[in-house]
Amino acid sequence: MTLTLNGEPRSFDGPAHLQALVTSLGLDPRKVAVERNLEIVPRALYAATPIAEGDRIEIVHFIGGG
Description:
This protein is mainly beta. The protein contains 1 helix and 5 strands. It has a single domain (2-61), classed as Beta-grasp domain (Ubiquitin-like (UB roll)), CATH 3.10.20.30.
């Protein structure tokens, strides 16, 4: 499946929902915000939000510091 991830086309084998995609990228779902096709997805819905060929996904990491 080909997705646009943070503005770049990327191919993935099989993640069927956002939770699987975030995990396959090695990211902690508690520390990212995800937008799918211009809509912010609540963290509680990552596992219930399917992804499909051609979806546009934006992932933003939260970074602490001071």
